[in-house]
Amino acid sequence: MTGRALGLADAQQENRLLVGIIEAISASPEVGPLAANTARLIVAATATDVCFVHVLDDTGTSLTLAGATPPLDEQVGKVRLGLGEGVTGWVASHRQPVVIAENKEADPRYLYFPELHGREFTSMASVPMASAPGGLVGVLNVHNRTRRDFTDRDIRLLTSIGSLVAGALHQARLHRQLAARKRAHEQFVEHVITVAEAERRRLAADMHDGISQRLLSLAF
Known about the structure:
Elements (H helix, E strand, L loop, with lengths): L10 H17 L3 H16 L3 E7 L5 E7 L11 E3 L3 H9 L3 E3 L22 E9 L3 E10 L7 H68 L1
Antiparallel strand pairs: 1-2, 1-6, 2-3, 4-5, 5-6
Helix pairs in contact: 1-2, 1-4, 2-4
């Protein structure tokens, strides 16, 4: 596999992969399904052994594993790392791709995560997922058990995929934020109505009590 461009025979296959990613985005812009479909499509098209999709949280301070290929998909949602932590965190904080062909432990950026079985894989490529409007959204990783010399073409393809996914995730995030604001606004309006109704009842009771007192005084 050394020197082979992600196992792709030609540009036609690259285009099919990108079309598949676009279809996955159209099918479900939600983070979980989109990340899972992206990981599956990449592994199938590139003949790599595993793919991880790490997504930046809304605070912009940590990454969560949002998608992975089996059997490591069992770790989705369980693995979190901060910016700068491990190769993935370094890619997120520096927004630059990283390629390690072998001997990952010798790289000072590498951090072993037992849950992800890192020592089973020899080579890896990691690229930032970023889009022009949304900035950094996450990090896309592929790993290979045998040595793999990832090429510039490989990195360009993975970066293109990352950009497509980042755009979709950014839109999904905006949608979630707008929905949250709408719910908060509706709850605020309900609260205001409840308070106003309670105040109206209190004033009505006060007025009733006041009139009753005056009538009583007049009677005496």
